Amino acid sequence: MASLGELRDERIKKSALLKEKGVSPYPATVRRDKTVGEVIANFSSLEAEGKELFLLGRVRTCRSQGGLSFFNFDDGTGVFQGLIKKDEIGEESFSLFSETVDGGDFLGVAGTLFLTKRGEKTIAVREWKMLAKALRPLPDKREGLHDTEERLRRRYLDTTTDEATKNLFVRKSRFWQATREFLLREGGLEVETPVLELIPGGADAEPFKTHHNALDVDLYLRISPELHLKRLIVGGYNKVFEIGRIFRNEGMDREHLQDYTQMEMYWAYIGYEEMMSLVERLVRHVVTKTLGSSTHQFNDTTIDWAAPWVRIDYYEVFALHTGLDLGNVTEAQLKAYAEKEGIDTGAHIGRGRLIDVIFKKKVRPHLIAPGFLLLPPVDIEPLAKRWAKDQNRVERFQIVACGSELGKGFSELNDPLDQRARFVEQARLREAGDKEAQMMDEDFVEALEYGMPPTAGFAYSERLFAFLMNLSVRETVFSPLMKPR
């Protein structure tokens, strides 16, 4: 079997032959009368008309029998068969086709439609044109790319040879279109906020750093648009949302990437209860639009988003699975419990971090049915409003299902003095070595001092889409960042 290098050299020679014959292997213009999908759908009427059509696509297979060449081509809307006869297009054109055309090449063909004796829809080619000569052979369409790393590194080959992968990204587009459609229908204003920031905020995450040459200042890539979006609420906009890229310099696993797409929304004059009702409708709409159904399979569990969502009290479920009462437990007791359970506490500084890591390891895996996880301790959420019934808890909810967190929202903290005090505590944790603790943002606190109305916010990322597909997040990204070979 010829090596890839030998096959490439052979195709380069074919490209040179085309040029010798005065044929450009990469012409600048192209004509198309119909898509293959349109031809297939309207074949009978188009065949009856007998008009010449110009179609195009990528050659998938090609086989010759004497003075005949059959080939299949695919334009992304369907696959169609072409037939070239030597005695109809001439020996020179037929020979050039036979000598230069390979699987993977893009062709344009002009001809009329007919049915073969076997009933195959076919175009009888009167003229053909090379549109783009492929210098490398495509992977076998039946075999595809089996190595996961190769699939992710060369996704363009994966989508070319695997229809399921190609359709995955069509569904992902529907996922974000449905999100945008719903929020616009609810009166939301789509906005854009800065990606480069002097102070990253809005989440507990380590940021990426960069440098702005013109201003000669060090900057961070945003870890969340939250604080900028809430500034817009201060500025008089009542319903704002953004769908954009987020950057977090944290670990990689099934649910985490360093750069990903996230939606964040902020609605003025509502609280977390009203936001939960809105989110339930949003997610059901997006799931149905993405999947065509309100149900899907995640591993061995059938998830039905149309069923009533359960409500889970954070304190109650924490006590159920750990035996710890968050109303009384101390930082020392949390640390002792974590160490007893084999949870590494070295990177988790402060009571809030310990609660969070224990919850993720010991509690969250038990949360299977879609639902809202409610009212956690104030220690783990520095931007949420305190619960009126217990000032040590915050009005936060998370969407949970099958042991995963799929979205988060809360009544936004609009008390500037409380917000400053929580930023101060975050700064203390940061100085103690917590790289994910939030920084003091004086400008944001100043904005709150001008007054922000009662507001609720919510966000989800493409992790939700990956969950719907029962895939890791990086499998649902066109070109995830990979370590160099």
From TrEMBL:
EC numbers for this chain: 6.1.1.6
Keywords of the record: Aminoacyl-tRNA synthetase, ATP-binding, Cytoplasm, Ligase, Magnesium, Metal-binding, Nucleotide-binding, Protein biosynthesis
BP-aspect Gene Ontology terms: lysyl-tRNA aminoacylation
Subcellular location: Cytoplasm
Catalysed reactions listed for this entry: tRNA(Lys) + L-lysine + ATP = L-lysyl-tRNA(Lys) + AMP + diphosphate
Annotated HAMAP family: Lys_tRNA_synth_class2 (MF_00252)
Name of the protein this chain belongs to: Lysine--tRNA ligase
The organism's taxonomic lineage, starting at the top: Bacteria, Candidatus Lloydiibacteriota
Gene for this chain: lysS
